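Okay, can you check this protein?
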Amino acid sequence: MTENKSFSTTFLVDNTPKEAFDAINNPRGWWSQVIDGDTDSLGAEFNYRYKDVHSASFKINEFVPNQRVVWHVLDNHFNFIKDKTEWIGTDVVFEIAAKGDKTEVRFTHAGLAPVYECYEVCATAWGSYITGSLRDLIASGKGRPNPIEEIVEQARQMSEQNYTASFTVDQSPDEVFAAVNNVRGWWSENIEGDTDKLGVEFKIHFQDLHHTTQKITELLPGKKVVWHITESRINFVEDKEEWKDTDIVFEINPANDRTELHFTHIGLAPVLACYGDCSDAWSGYIMRSLFGLISKGQGEPEQKDKAAA
């Protein structure tokens, strides 16, 4: 299946398999100069680091001269996604083969699949380092191991970009505040517990797809509401707890003679597997259902489960 397909890329050079093999084993010349340890002997371990963005440790598990090199990822830390250890247990594989009078280098990061949070950023980075920097090192003797700033900046932006939505209504801040706290009136009727008292927790479920527990950590009348997600289970993504320890924030502000509501789900960023489905759902609940509850007195919440009725 597509979601389980590991990232792979291939290129051809005019050089010999030995020249390709030697260049691969010189990652300081094509990947990063910030590498500690030997990178060219079977069983060796080395560490890679780029600022505070990414660090990883590798062990060379296969080392077949002019044919194959495999690095096994022992440890890993990303600072721009929720699962900071995603690469652990994966394998970085280089395969070298003569193709007529040319040499083919096939790179595969076995385990780096589209289901990973970092896939887009990591695949883009590997593509640049392998088909750009490594290929240049083999062909011309000079790679480009310095960090690719655009990719690092993309990772930084992805880690900071939370889902938000805003609208303006004619109702007063107090009326908006009251509607926000009437969660059964706009989000779901399948709620257990109070939703309008500081410090309380309430639970919500959407059939067997999504269960969360929220604790109300801020409740400023007419101004602000914050829910902290203490428990979450999302059954349609690999990391079932993606929402855990995120915050749902409602900010209410006067806007001339109207009132603006600004909604932010802090931690729900594009790097999360559920982002597409979850942001679409929030758009419906906030921009249509909560807006309707405030402006017309009628929301469109998820209906109460028949089994629980």
In short: The chain has five helices and 14 strands. The mean pLDDT is 89.
